[in-house]
Amino acid sequence: MAYLELNALSVILCGSFRANVYLPEMDKLNLKDERHEKKYPVLWLLHSEGGSCLDWNKTMAEACAAEYGIIIVAPDAQHSLCTNMEYGPKYEDFLAKELPGIVRNNLPAAKEAEKNWIGGVGTGAYGAVKAAIKHPEVFSKCIALDGIFDMEKICRQAEEDKPTGIFHKEESLKAVFGSLQAFKNSEHDIYALAEKCGKGKFYIAGTDTSPYADERKRLAERLKEKAYYVRTEGEIMNFGEPVALKNAVRWLLDKK
Amino acid sequence: MAYLELNALSVILCGSFRANVYLPEMDKLNLKDERHEKKYPVLWLLHSEGGSCLDWNKTMAEACAAEYGIIIVAPDAQHSLCTNMEYGPKYEDFLAKELPGIVRNNLPAAKEAEKNWIGGVGTGAYGAVKAAIKHPEVFSKCIALDGIFDMEKICRQAEEDKPTGIFHKEESLKAVFGSLQAFKNSEHDIYALAEKCGKGKFYIAGTDTSPYADERKRLAERLKEKAYYVRTEGEIMNFGEPVALKNAVRWLLDKK
Amino acid sequence: MAYLELNALSVILCGSFRANVYLPEMDKLNLKDERHEKKYPVLWLLHSEGGSCLDWNKTMAEACAAEYGIIIVAPDAQHSLCTNMEYGPKYEDFLAKELPGIVRNNLPAAKEAEKNWIGGVGTGAYGAVKAAIKHPEVFSKCIALDGIFDMEKICRQAEEDKPTGIFHKEESLKAVFGSLQAFKNSEHDIYALAEKCGKGKFYIAGTDTSPYADERKRLAERLKEKAYYVRTEGEIMNFGEPVALKNAVRWLLDKK
Amino acid sequence: MAYLELNALSVILCGSFRANVYLPEMDKLNLKDERHEKKYPVLWLLHSEGGSCLDWNKTMAEACAAEYGIIIVAPDAQHSLCTNMEYGPKYEDFLAKELPGIVRNNLPAAKEAEKNWIGGVGTGAYGAVKAAIKHPEVFSKCIALDGIFDMEKICRQAEEDKPTGIFHKEESLKAVFGSLQAFKNSEHDIYALAEKCGKGKFYIAGTDTSPYADERKRLAERLKEKAYYVRTEGEIMNFGEPVALKNAVRWLLDKK
């Protein structure tokens, strides 16, 4: 196993950021590759609102990187909802442009879209799907675990001062999305984006009993044949389905 | 030495945060204190814009905690300028209320204001002075190293699209302060606050050659006899004056 | 959640050591306890040979600490087999004496044996059972997950230059135990210790299909009514039985 | 800045190890190097007995890596004195063989000896000089800061049960070196090695007032024209001479 905690400076985020990086098992590395020019596929993984990159330590992320010979990079997203915030950091740009550059300068990470995948859990799944739809030249596949996708509903709840279910309320959602009235069909509305999605493959997993089950299925329907919907028995972050990430990674690698 | 990296959940910040904690040297601890009821003074330390709590690792923070028997807590501040953001986390509330509670629940940290001090470097010094002026019931003394205080000037530069010297521009400053036109004399204007400052002691240090030297002196003047102005030969964060923190801590402890 | 990475100096280990610490959920803390005098039960957790304290990040350790209101402390053990090494650090002394003192000086950790439990996985389970048998005044209960207990067999394999199944060979085992011929019935022989064990409760868990299943059962037999043997469906560290730690913690707390 | 905490598995050390890695400033990277094939010089840095890789955080290591475009790798050495222990890990082999391989597989680290340098402080300086003398095919230059070199004297003190000045006594020194009587002129005796040293350049720095000043000068004399002796005003690890590492790095880079 090899596990890095990366602290680096982002020009786009205007400051330092933290990411956890899981590397392929050393003995899987090609040690005869004297010039060390081999590049590994990369899975970019986004935590959910209120969490941090440390959340992935409790999943099989390290085991997946080691066993399947991929690099997994999990950056902190703070409260950006992985979005180019109206008032705040342009997180989507960071994710699609700057972070891959920083990582490729420092680690043997492949550059081709077909070897770059993005994933997330909860609101991180929202961020991952959005990034994959908008940046198919960067990410060719996406895995969305226990996703929370319907931000329009969350905006409405916030406006009505009801619990949003995530660590956000009206004011902080405005900092992210700008006017909440204008959310529907905006570039942040994942259902509108899904309608126009031209490329990519999407693995959408979750339990049948989740209050978010319907919005996941609805997203899968919008993505049509590009989506692969998977019913799980439990949720990954509360240890209800520890193999959820492993199964998703196997799908990325076209393994049965 | 004892050095903790704390990752915990903040209700006010709506998510997890990171802090570095430096503890008194074990052999300075009173091991006969069988019930471990001794509480240590606490210095709360704020990094500058664009940095992180890791910045303090390169100062004598650990050495100061060990040698002088104090706890030093250095939280991440992200882009909040240590302020209750208009659009974003209420960082000042976090600092003055929630963080002390979390720390005191988990570490032997004293509660009395006379044993709680706040400090910072760069924009962290701005945050520290502001918190000390507004919350004298929490922090009795403040140390401001290489401070950047004149946020009104920075707001004006941002509006005119000039370089601000910190990792902020008009839009992100609005997320922090709200309307930039209304900044002057607002609760964020440290010079206005200083006029009305009723309590506290302020150690304000920096070089004569800094572009911020004038605004530091101006702040010291406003704080009148409550300020102690110190001229340094170099800046702490570029190793120009490594003893800057140590000298400031000695001042906190009334040591010559 | 609150998660600490502790780096501190040990006199007994002659150097700095690292430990992961998981704390009770903040909202479980008694915030009316103004003087913060509440002390929490502590579970001391030992990783297996070749691992590190980071291993516990992938278990429910954080969730158990948060949910059940206990402190979990997981120190690095390096290659000591949690033993007072013949040539090397006196790890058992560190564990039973110095580490509890360091932790209690810095965290609200209970002191009474009935609120101090020790546990481990693999060779860490060997270390935990040994410490619990030898130090009943410190640890009242022990949880041993997927334990590797028969060090005599490992010593014999090492002498015969066969694979030991752990990251040790003859030479490094001598550094730990001294003469391998003298191992049987020594203070390191857990079966000999178990015969004479006067106090304590032992939770011994593992799969039926493990090559170590027999030696686990044999240990449980020696410990007689003090042992509670549990058959699991998979191993904790490869995510085969993620609830293994949670079940063991519930047993510590006498929960059904 | 970019700062990595690396946790990886070592076959030679039989377990996981930790290293701090400091990387060149991102904006110094050649972003037109689309295929990211540029490799950076590497300085391997060893802490002193009783410390850890975290010690380097308080030096200008990060600043040097950023400013001069080099990678600095600082591994934990525990109590090995950076030596192939008689009873314990073969740390010298790890340092000269395995660690460079692991790092080069994961980071853009140059392979040529002329771009690989080793350094250390205290007993880490002993380890660095020894590695540089014995492995000129790996390390072309060496920087030794505040070095503690005369292990024979330390062995004698230990045998006479006198304080050794480092965190070692007779028993633990035997675990490292084997028979202490046989130390003189052994492969661990740095003065004997220096006599036969065929290649390399050695920067040996320290204060005139150190109790180790004489043994440093003696080492420099033995290394003859290959040594460059530098008198400093203070010690690096207690902030007495914060630029000590920077000056040494400039020497490595042939900068005035």
From TrEMBL, chains A, B, C, D:
<dbReference type="InterPro" id="IPR050583">
    <property type="entry name" value="Mycobacterial_A85_antigen"/>
</dbReference>
<dbReference type="InterPro" id="IPR000801">
    <property type="entry name" value="Esterase-like"/>
</dbReference>
<protein>
    <recommendedName>
        <fullName>Prolyl oligopeptidase family serine peptidase</fullName>
    </recommendedName>
</protein>
<dbReference type="GO" id="GO:0016747">
    <property type="term" value="F:acyltransferase activity, transferring groups other than amino-acyl groups"/>
</dbReference>
<dbReference type="InterPro" id="IPR029058">
    <property type="entry name" value="AB_hydrolase_fold"/>
</dbReference>
<dbReference type="Pfam" id="PF00756">
    <property type="entry name" value="Esterase"/>
</dbReference>
